[in-house]
Amino acid sequence: MTVEPYAAWSVIVPAKAADRAKTRLAPAYGGLRPAMARAFALDTIRAAGDCDRVALVIVVSDDDVLADKVRDRHAVRLVADPGLDLNAAIRAGADVAPPGDRVAVIPADLPALTGPTLATALSLAEPYERAVVADGEGVGTTLLSARTPARLRPAFGQGSLGVHKAGGAVVIDLRTDSALRRDVDVPRHLTEAAMLGVGPSTRRVLERLRRREETEPVTDSASSR
Ligand SMILES: Nc1nc2c(ncn2[C@@H]2O[C@H](COP(=O)(O)OP(=O)(O)OP(=O)(O)O)[C@@H](O)[C@H]2O)c(=O)[nH]1
Ligand SMILES: C=C(OP(=O)(O)O)C(=O)O
């Protein structure tokens, strides 16, 4: 009997430089925001690297600290950010993916993602020319895949799920509480990700946050919020 080998996947992870990333978290977490953004990226990259379906993780970023932490990891390739926008960064990643590999892109803000969860999504996406996973709100995109890098055609941005569906991407129906659907844009999302269980880098930042909250005096106005 001939057993078909599993397809090899390249997974692109675009990550904004941490000093500019995750600005919607700034009001809640202040000075910890850059460390938090970088920790989400590190845990997302770790999960992609842990996924047994993934042959290559392509990290597109200008974040030097992040680059130093991942450059020696097995099967990670670093690509410079073209400095335009998210879709241009993804296209720069797709340009270096092996042309015969299936390719997927996930945002770098999935701190609860694990290798097996990503493997399940990639297996479900495999039969399709293009496939998409919806974020927890069912509006944005947390995974876009294509049979070849040239066919990825990323259209991330507000309401991207609808745009990707209109472009023919088939929706991969994961449970709403899948870690692959819990991107962290606002503080409530971080609470939800923490309940799912985040990776080690994000755990360390949450521990710093807890210590900071313990040492900060609670004022009357703060306690009444
Ligand atoms: N390399 C790269 N990554 C990007 C760029 N824009 C967004 N991203 C990444 O794409 C993912 C999804 O983007 P957003 O959720 O909008 O992240 P963000 O822009 O850091 O967050 P906000 O400032 O709160 O809007 C995040 O992991 C970002 O780091 C870009 O221009 N270049
Ligand atoms: C960029 C996107 O969304 P967000 O900024 O909400 O993560 C998207 O879902 O395409």
Feature tags:
disordered C terminus; EC 2.7.7.105; 7-stranded mixed beta sheet; 225 residues; 9 helices; GTP binding; nucleotidyltransferase; transferase; binds guanosine-5'-triphosphate
Number of H- or I-type helical stretches: 9
In total, how many beta strands? 7
**Ligand list:** guanosine-5'-triphosphate, phosphoenolpyruvate
What's the SSE pattern?
EHHEHEHEHEEHEHHH
Structural class: alpha/beta
Portion in beta strands: 15-25%
Low-confidence stretches: 220-225
Alpha-carbon Rg, integer? 18 Å
Biggest sheet strand order reads: 3-2-1-4-6-5-7
Note the main sheet.
7 strands, mixed
Characterization of this structure:
Helices cover 39% and strands 16% of the residues. It contains nine helices and seven strands. A seven-stranded mixed β-sheet has the order 3-2-1-4-6-5-7, with helices on both faces. The longest helix is centred in the first third of the chain and has 18 residues, at 33-50. Guanylyltransferase that catalyzes the activation of phosphoenolpyruvate (PEP) as enolpyruvoyl-2-diphospho-5'-guanosine, via the condensation of PEP with GTP. It is involved in the biosynthesis of coenzyme F420, a hydride carrier cofactor.
In short:
The chain has 225 residues and is of the alpha/beta class.
Helices and strands, with pairings:
Blueprint: E1 9-15, H1 26-29, H2 33-50, E2 54-61, H3 64-70, E3 76-79, H4 86-96, E4 102-105, H5 115-125, E5 130-134, E6 141-146, H6 160-166, E7 170-171, H7 187-196, H8 200-215, H9 220-223
Parallel strand pairs: 1-2, 1-4, 2-3, 5-7
Antiparallel strand pairs: 4-6, 5-6
Helix pairs in contact: 2-8
This protein binds guanosine-5'-triphosphate (GTP) and phosphoenolpyruvate.
GO molecular function, one term: phospholactate guanylyltransferase activity
InterPro entries: CofC, Nucleotide-diphossugar_trans
Pfam family, one: CofC
